[in-house]
Every structure is written in C-alpha cells, then in structure tokens.
Amino acid sequence: MSAHGHTAELTHEHAVGTTKLFATVWVWLLLLTIVEVFLAYLRLEVHLMITILVGLSLIKAALIISYFMHMRFERLGLFLLLIPAMVFCICMMLIMFFPDSIRLMHLRPH
Amino acid sequence: MSDTEFEGIVASPWSGGASPFAINSKKLGMWLFIISDSLTFSALLISYAYVRLETPNWPRPFEIWPAIAKSSLMTFVLLSSSLTMVLGVNAAFNGDRKKTVRYLIATILCGIAFVAIHATEWVTLLGEGVTPWSNPFNPAAPLFGGTFFGLTGLHMLHVTIGVAYLAIIAWGFGKGKYTAEHVEVSGLYWHFVDLVWMFIFPMVYLLSVNPK
After folding, report:
1. Could you tell me the domains of chain B?
2. Which of A22, B48, B118, B162 lies at 20 to 30 Å from A14 by C-alpha?
3. What is the mean pLDDT of residues A58-85?
C-alpha cells in the first residue's frame, strides 16, 4: 500500500491525503449518486436495476473505504486481515440467496 | 518486503512493542467492529432484496418529488458530512484543534440535518398508513413496512449514536483530553455509517420509485 510507517515510527501520527484529493473523491461520489438517481428516473426493469445499483454502490463503497477510511494509506496486512473475510461472509449469505430467489421467480404464476 | 517491515512484524507479537499493521489497538478495534456491523447490514439488505425480488407487485410509493428528491438531498448531506469529517481528521493530525472542532461541528450538524429530513420522510409514510406490520399500498406484501423501517431505522440509530459520539470527541478534543487518533477512529465509524447509506438509498428508495 503506502510507504508510510515502514520506518522507526510504527503508527503514522500525521495527516494523509490532501484536501484536494478528498474533495475529488467527494465529487466522484456525488456524480455516481446522480447517475443512480437518473437510472431511477428511467424506471428500468427491477432485476437489471438492482444489478446496476449494487455495482455502482460497490464502487462508492470502495472509494469511501480507500480514501475516507484511509485504507489506501494503511499497510496491505490490514486490508488482507479485514476485507477478504468480510467478502467471504457476504458471499456465504448470497449462496443461500441466489438459487432460492431464482427458483421462486420461476415458480411464480405468470 | 523491506527489512524494516520484517523486523516490525517479528518484534511485535511477543514483545508487545509494535503492531504488524502499524496502527494502534483502538483503530483495529473499530475496524473489527465495522466488519461485524457490515455483516449485520448485509444480512438485512440481502433479506430485503430477497423479498423485494420475489414478491409480485411490491409497493412503489416513492414519487420523484418529494420522496426521491428528499432522499437524494439526504445522500448529499451525508456525503458532505464525510468530507468535513475526513478534513477534520487531517486538521487533528496537523495539530489544529480549533479547525478540527469546527469541522466536527459541521459533521454533527449534517448528521442532525440527515436525521431531521429522514424523520419527515418517516412521518409522511406513517401518515399514509405504513407501519412495520402493515402496508396499505398492497396488503399482499406486508413486509414492505417491516423491511423499510427495519433497515432505515437501524441506520438512523447508527447516525444518532454517531452524532453523540462525535459530540463527545469534539468536546474532548477541544479540551485537549483526546488525541488525533481518537478523532480518526470516530471518523472511521462515521464513514461507515455513510457507506451503509450508499447501499440503503438505492436499494430501498431508487428500487421503489413510483412507475407512473
């Protein structure tokens, strides 16, 4: 990740990132939100809509975690400790979700 | 891997002197809490998505005006509060106590504005007869109220706790009781609340826009 904290000081007690960087991230988050609201205005089919929305939200979540939550500036070890475990647990929940919801969709009378 | 990093890792577990992640225990604790809390919210969102997709004629009560406009404004307020928070953390590390407290107060005000706008939204829905156990739009989908109030209610509880938490940190940091590390850890919590809203807003509001 970054070169910070690799030397004698083991916890970085200084500011990371600039005002300009954080303002840029904020603008990107707003732009992605505007895209989402615009998609709602188009009133797409619900399965397509939820796929696009979750995709865009994951990008926003990644931006918030990397920059606002400073993950970009931490050691790789912290990222490896936290994020894969979380993703794994969420995938385990989704394994129960997808087959069953698709089955119910097909069972539904048309 | 550089030598210094290697030494840091070897020295840490038994000597207790250093951390393999180069962060202190408070921050690691907050990160672990955030991961477990994110699983709570994912479980709620996944179960909501499940009933949302498999229920025919799920109610779509949200008009572009005012519900979607209002919730977009709430998203804007919460995103801006994250920006003031992260700038507050930077000011704290730069040792500027006055500026930090000002940024934290701006964050708190945004949080209060979010809760206030959200409360009007709740009152509107309650006025239309939606409760956690009933749904006037389509009696065949009684879970609408339950999932809506469950998800947004738990998130609102997080925002309210966050406002109180930041108020304590702002007061203590202004007095010199707390360090910049405290501000950063409270910032992690606040950004997480913002992050969760980035999922709740599209899934709950944008997916139920009135089709007319």
Report:
1. 24-208 (1.20.120.80)
2. B162
3. 93
